[in-house]
Amino acid sequence: MKFPVRIFIILLCTCMSARSAHAQESSDLKGTSCIPVRSVAGDELAFQDGESMHFAVQYKWGAVNTDVGYATVRLDTLCYNGVEAFRCSAYGYTKRFFDFFFKVREDFKSWFTYDGMRPLKFTRDTQEGSYKARNTYIYDWTLPEPHIVADVYSTSSGQRNIDLPLTPCTFDLPSLFFYARNMNFDIIEPGKKYPMTFAIDDDIFNVYFILYGRETIKVKGLGTVKTIRFGAKLLEGEVFKGDEDMMIWVSDDENRLPVYFEAPLLVGLATGRLLDVEGTKHPFTALVEDKRN
Fold it and tell me: What is the pTM of this model?
């Protein structure tokens, strides 16, 4: 069984992928529809420069119930080719004990504009046991038909240089996560499928999320949190079942922080939880009982 640290990195973008996955598409999800957001203007975003989140990833199967790894997501700002931009750095790793069974290191970076959240660049550096993968995307918006200039490598497929289609609603995984944190709950309907489009490796995937409603939950090590629960469609492949949705709970406040998730695997269940957060733009008012100290 592959211990699922990668799952949490991809959870942070509210959708899943596996290196041999095939997207579960339906005709009503195809196209270029964007997630309904309230605004992507820089000063109105749900996050800010300096935000840092720390997570634990847990694996459950029968009598096995243990943390297998950790992930961090950090956000800063810089100047990218003369444009003010955010840079997201997401890093996940297995604990030293589990490195003996299946060592995982995931390093994702994404650059996107401060105002408008338009993706600019994405890199991925992955090690999963003997498997390795690297992605470098440059988003070329200057052409009449914009595209992603993708330099991709994996130990299974070798080196490839390809162009991927690009629309205003296409993201990489980290930029999709931050874009989704600006959802407009005034117009999102519970139970309705909303499409999400992202690029990873050498392909474009169309998945969806569903809003289920508000819940107050207890998160180990964090406390009691008021949340909004979503389901996100998994991609069937080597790890995921594909016939069940991943469940995601985000803080019911202006930050929209991911605080907990559950993802059914082919064998067992992966869960993740927020351990701590620093540098939020808004007070963490959804945390009604703090267990961090």
Answer: 0.86
290 pLDDT higher than 90: yes
Q: Tell me which residue of 203, 227, 237 sits closest to 285, measured CA to CA.
A: 227
Q: How far apart are CA 177 and CA 258, in angstroms?
A: 10
Residues paired with residue 208 on neighbouring β-strands, in sequence order: 195
The amino acid occupying position 284 is F
Q: What is the mean pLDDT of the chain?
A: 83
| Contact assessment for residue 49 and residue 280, using Cβ atoms and an 8 Å cutoff | no
- Give the pLDDT band of residue 147 (cuts 50, 70, 90): very high
Q: Where are the alpha helices (DSSP H) in 12-153?
A: 96-102
Which of 204, 71, 195 lies closest to 137, judged by CA? 204
For 237-252, write each residue's pLDDT tens digit: 444 444 557 889 999 9
- The C-alpha atoms of residue 246 and residue 265 are separated, in whole angstroms, by 10
- Sign of the dihedral through C-alpha 164, 240, 154, 3: positive
d(C-alpha 105, C-alpha 108), whole Å: 10
Q: E strands, the chain, where?
A: 52-61, 64-80, 83-94, 104-113, 119-128, 131-140, 147-154, 158-165, 170-171, 193-200, 203-219, 223-233, 245-251, 258-264, 269-278, 287-290
